[in-house]
Design goal:
Elements lengths: L6 H7 L7 E2 L6 E4 L2 E4 L4 E2 L2 E2 L5 E4 L9 E4 L6 E2 L14 E3 L9 E5 L13 E6 H26 L9 E2 L2 H5 L9 E6 L3 E10 L10 E4 L5 E8 L5 E3 L13 H11 L3 E4 L2 E5 L3 E3 L4 E4 L3 E5 L7 E3 L3 E4 L2 E3 L14 E4 L2 E6 L2 E5 L4 E4 L2 E6 L2 E4 L4 E3 L6 E13 L4 E4 L6 E12 L7 E6 L11 E11 L3 E5 L2 E20 L6 E19 L9 E11 L7 E5 L2 E5 L3 E4 L7 E5 L5 E2 L2 E3 L4 E7 L5 E4 L2 E4 L6 E7 L4 E4 L2 E4 L12 E5 L8 E7 L3 E7 L12 E12 L7 E13 L2 E15 L8 E6 L3 E7 L5 E12 L1
Parallel strand pairs: 1-6, 12-13, 17-18, 18-21, 19-22, 20-23, 21-24, 22-25, 23-26, 24-27, 25-28, 26-29, 27-30, 28-31, 29-32, 30-33, 31-33, 32-34, 33-35, 34-36, 35-37, 36-38, 37-39, 38-39, 39-40, 40-41, 40-42, 41-43, 41-44, 42-45, 43-46, 44-47, 45-48, 46-49, 47-50, 48-51, 49-52, 50-53, 52-54
Antiparallel strand pairs: 2-3, 4-5, 6-7, 7-8, 9-10, 10-11, 13-14, 14-16, 15-16, 55-62, 56-61, 57-58, 57-62, 58-59, 60-61
Length: 782
């Protein structure tokens, strides 16, 4: 390919900075205030433009608009180096890098000193890599012919140079008196299906992929296939590949050798293939739309890539079953190299990993399709690490994982972008759409995987996403259907900085489950954003479980537990955790908070709703320090609930609405009166000076000392008023006994009064017995 000129050369010769694409037809414009504008990202010469692309616009119906532009989602503007008549004067050239029609072409401006916006700007074809190659080939031909003339003159050779035949068979039937130095064919079995160039090899045998002819005197002359006559393009048929052959490996290897750093074409038809093939550095391999390589064994990788390769629309099929190959052999082996693009691949039926990557970087896998009995894409490092791998628009099925990174070493894997739509094969729940894992715990808790960007769909597998030993993970989109767990992270190795931006997780057991493994650093930094978690069918389910410090579940998160037995909507065990989520139908707790240190946990701004049955706890509090904050929540449905301790871990309760959050649980040993205070300032309806509230207090007590079960219940009702900052009961308090164990009735009792700061509930117990009890206060402003 022609090399773009340096800045100094461009200054002297008038060559502009190269452009990515050149137009082949008029681009639509919009007119604003009499000025025509090109707008939006468009397809140009078969390629989708991206923001910032330089595009040569040369085919406008209004030629005044021609020139070099910078593409944008909005208006296109002329490039900085091509905005004046001086920078687009006649003779100025520009090199095109990509495109179906204009790749490697050079165009020249033809208008003398154009006035921008007034004069037509005309461009014409100047040269291409092919024309340069033709000039070089012509020059070499002159040299060859001169040498041949010299040979003839000295009697060393009488020759016919470079005859061309329609097909390889026609060439093989050629019987001259003297063998030529070169033979060209326009096709393999017909014109256009495998043009090739052959060179006399000095033997009587056909070289690899070559041919042999019989001279008029009966002697033989052999020829090697060396290259297509133009563009270094070889059709494998020209090297002897045949759809009727049992194994076409030799023919393909010969075609690759002839192509050098050019291009190998796999034409229409099904070609059987056993063994593996090296794809040398710089080679492009392109499959016809109706081409297929049929593997006849799975003993090793099919293609070993050597770097700077582009594989277009590969189609491979092989013997496939649901037994995962332990060695992971598959189709593409990408090891220790840089610069690989594989696009529009359809790979089916192999037992190994379709794309196996190790110690490599800048790998692009676009629009991958197919199925496998193992993994579609695997990263497994041994020597130095892998970076900058981009898997985009993958639509696949696998027995194990769609994308799998797994290694026990500490070599870094970074800057990985995955977009995969994955379906489980085999009828069992196994594997995940995307997995970054470590099968053993490394020393020092090294975080191997960094800067991960993930979009995934997962169907019928065990997981949607698995993360172990990873940092800086952005889950841009996650959709799961029929999996057991949506996200499993931190198992065996901690994680840091997980950002879940958008999700729709249907899971039977656990939506998002984040652990901190024993003996390792604590997982931290989890941000759960906008999405839905639903579909639970198993008992003891979690919508969200996080043992990571600094976990936040946003108000845009909807957790619908579907009434799964003994379930918890959100459980946060780390420090500085908080939830704002909307949670429906959790049968054990809406929110379970554990405060482990001096950092405050929060359940704020949430919407808790029970639609069937009831939960045991609205907010379940446990831990070791009084730093739980519960405020601004809305409760509805049939939740009744109680906390699991005496409330001493709650630092702040205020501004909540609905339900009956104000609950306490205490233990009353012997005949000792035990007091519980519900402060008016922290109630559902704060009682400010000059205001009053109706209240009801439900008290339920039960033997908890292991003796025979006994219980008691009381309901109190009255009005409390704040007069000048002093709280007092207004009128009488009614007390209703709704059940009391007869043996203890004489001693067991409950009472309600107005204290200095709120409503005081006291339970007096029974000698030699222990009662556990809870109280619920409801207030309604009057």
């Amino acid at each position: 390919m022609a090399r773009p000129a340096t800045a100094a050369v461009r200054l002297l010769t008038g060559e502009r900075e190269p452009v990515r694409l050149a137009t082949t037809a008029n681009l639509e414009t919009i007119v604003i205030d009499g000025v025509a504008w090109i707008q939006g990202l468009k397809m140009v010469d078969g390629v989708q433009t991206a923001t910032g692309d330089r595009v040569l616009v040369k085919d406008q119906a209004d030629a005044r608009l021609n020139g070099i532009y910078t593409a944008s989602e909005g208006y296109w503007y002329r490039a900085a180096d091509a905005r004046t008549g001086r920078t687009m004067q006649k003779g100025t050239t520009v090199h095109v890098q990509e495109g179906t029609a204009s790749a490697a072409f050079v165009y020249a401006f033809q208008t003398v000193s154009p006035v921008i916006g007034a004069d037509d700007i005309v461009l014409s074809f100047y040269q291409s890599d092919d024309t340069v190659g033709d000039i070089q080939a012509a020059a070499q031909g002159i040299i060859d012919r001169a040498q041949a003339a010299a040979d003839v003159a000295t009697g060393a050779m009488t020759t016919v140079l470079d005859p061309q035949f329609a097909t390889k068979a026609t060439a093989e039937a050629y019987s001259p008196a003297i063998a030529p130095d070169y033979i060209r064919t326009a096709g393999y079995s017909q014109v256009g299906d495998g043009q090739a160039l052959y060179r006399k090899n000095g033997t009587i045998s056909a070289g690899g992929g070559g041919l042999a002819i019989t001279l008029q005197d009966g002697a033989k002359a052999g020829f090697d296939i060396i290259n297509a006559p133009r563009a270094k393009e070889i059709n494998i048929r020209a090297a002897g590949a045949d759809t009727a052959a049992g194994n076409n490996r030799t023919a393909i290897v010969n075609a690759i050798a002839a192509a050098g750093q050019g291009r190998v074409i796999i034409p229409a038809g099904t070609f059987s293939l056993a063994g593996n093939i090296d794809i040398p550095q710089g080679l492009m391999v392109e499959f016809d739309d109706k081409a297929l390589l049929q593997r006849t064994e799975d003993a090793t990788h099919l293609f070993n890539l050597k770097g700077d390769n582009r594989i277009i629309a590969p189609k491979v099929n092989g013997a496939w079953n649901h037994v995962a190959a332990a060695n992971g052999f598959g189709v593409f082996n990408i090891s220790g190299i840089s610069g690989v693009t594989i696009e529009h691949g359809t790979l089916t039926g192999t037992q190994g990993d379709h794309y196996r990557i190790a110690d490599s970087n800048w790998v692009y896998i676009d629009d991958a399709r197919g199925d496998t009995a193992r993994n579609i894409v695997t990263i497994n490092d041994d020597v130095s690490g892998t970076s900058h791998v981009f898997v985009r628009r993958a639509r696949v099925s696998a027995y194990l994982n769609g994308f799998d990174a797994e290694s026990d070493d500490d070599w870094p894997v970074s800057d990985i972008e995955v977009d995969i739509d994955w379906t489980q094969l085999g009828g069992v729940q196994l594997g995940a759409a995307v997995a970054f894992t470590r099968s053993a715990v490394p020393a020092g808790s090294v975080l191997k995987y960094k800067r991960l960007r993930i979009s995934a769909k997962s169907r019928d597998g065990l997981y949607g996403l698995v993360l172990r030993g990873a940092k800086d993970i952005e889950v841009r989109s996650l959709v799961t259907e029929g999996v057991q767990q949506g996200i499993r992270a931190g198992t065996g190795h901690h994680i840091e900085d997980l950002r879940l931006l958008s999700f729709d997780i249907q899971a039977t057991h656990q939506g998002i489950y984040i652990e901190t493994p024993a003996g390792q650093q604590i997982s931290r930094g989890v941000r759960i954003g906008a999405g839905r978690i639903f579909g639970f069918t198993q008992a003891n389910a979690y919508g969200v479980f996080s043992a990571a410090d600094e976990t936040i579940v946003s108000a845009d998160t909807l957790v619908d537990m579907g009434g799964a037995a003994a379930s918890i909507g959100v459980r946060l065990n780390g420090d500085m955790s908080q939830t704002h989520a909307g949670i429906a139908d959790a049968r054990s707790s809406y929110v379970a908070l554990s405060t482990l240190s001096s950092e405050r946990q929060r359940a704020t701004g949430g919407l808790f709703k029970a639609t069937t049955g009831s939960v045991v706890n609205d907010v379940k509090v446990s831990g070791s320090s009084p730093n739980i904050e519960v405020r601004g929540n809305i409760y509805s449905g049939t939740a009744t609930g109680k906390p699991t301790d005496d409330g001493s871990h709650i630092a702040l309760i205020e501004g909540n609405r609905g339900g009956d959050l104000f609950k306490g649980y205490k233990s009353t040993p012997d005949a000792t009166p035990v007091l519980m205070v519900f402060e008016a300032g922290n109630s559902f309806v704060p009682i400010r000076p000059g205001q009053g509230a109706k209240f009801t207090v439900d008290v339920a007590a039960r033997r908890t000392d292991g003796s025979s079960s006994t219980s008691a219940g009381y309901v109190f009702a009255g009005v409390i008023r704040n007069t000048g900052g002093t709280l007092a009961i207004e009128g009488a308090i009614t007390k209703t006994v709704i059940g009391e164990y007869a043996t203890d009735a004489a001693s067991l009792d409950a009472s309600v009064t107005a204290g200095a700061s709120g409503i005081e509930v006291t339970v007096t117990g029974v000698a030699a017995k222990t009662y556990g009890w809870n109280a619920v206060v409801r207030l309604q402003e009057v």
